[in-house]
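Q: I have 111 residues here and want to know how they pack in 3D. Can you give me a structure?
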Amino acid sequence: LCILLPSSVTFQTMSGTQLDHIKDTIKRVLHFKDSRLSSIKLSSNRSNIAYSVCEIEGTLSNFSNLDFLIPTPFPLGFKLRKTLVFHDSISLTQSASTYMNGLLPFDLQNK
């Protein structure tokens, strides 16, 4: 990339997790010079984030393990908290989304 663009063009590569061997590959392939590089590492720890790992019952496709995220019955005017759940595949993610959508009151589904 450095060969194709004039030196006056500034560009960057970014990654949430850039292991050393990946960083070395990026530098080699893009022809980055160490003398002209800056690297910024920031922690993902934030005071407004609570990390949690929950052991599942049964298989990964037993989505009732996620029931704790949506109260039943759903209180009138209740606002769900922003939540991030990791799954092992796209198909599990889609199935979990469909399952959880079904737990919501009808007027909140598919939003």
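Q: Anything worth noting?
A: Residues 66 and 100 are 8 Å apart (CA to CA). DSSP finds two helices and no strands in the chain.
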